[in-house]
Design brief:
OB fold (Dihydrolipoamide Acetyltransferase, E2P), five-stranded antiparallel sheet, alpha+beta
Length: about 140
């Protein structure tokens, strides 16, 4: 006789998928709300990619971060920031003109206005979360 019955393993797997799905979906919704709030209240300015810096990630993969210079409307000097998230391959090249969104009280927290830098993470988290929820529900409803 097996240590755990198939139905126990099935319930455990389904439960983990449901909990993981809920956590991923909530995180995705949180990032979506935060990004929407940032975009709604941010000022915009033109910027230019000055450099694309390659850095090794935690698992040894290389990610590319554009260094962007822009001039906030209320300052006399330009600001340079490292745009996040790091991407591979980089969709930006040195000399590219980009639109920068920033809050007046935090010009160093600026972001490039693009799908990849603003919306990709929340959408992926929500989709994976919903996928886990669907798989967990399917696993729990599967006959033993």
């Amino acid at each position: 006789m097996a240590l755990f019955s198939k139905s126990f393993k099935q319930r455990l797997t389904g439960g983990f998928l449901l909990v993981g799905g809920v956590c991923l979906t909530i995180a995705g919704i949180w990032f979506l709300v935060a990004t929407t709030d940032f975009v709604r209240h941010a000022e915009r300015a033109p910027g230019q990619v000055m450099e694309v810096v390659g850095e090794r990630g935690a698992r040894g993969s290389k990610l590319y971060y554009p260094m962007v210079r822009y001039l906030p409307h209320d300052r006399g000097s330009s600001t340079v920031f490292k745009a996040k998230p790091g991407l591979w391959p980089s969709p930006f090249s040195v000399g590219d003109t980009v639109t920068v969104a920033y809050r007046a009280d935090d010009p160093d927290g600026a972001k490039i206005v693009s799908f990849w830098t603003l919306w990709f993470l929340p959408i992926v988290l929500i989709l994976f979360g919903l996928g886990c929820l669907f798989a967990g529900r399917h696993t729990l409803n599967k006959p033993v």
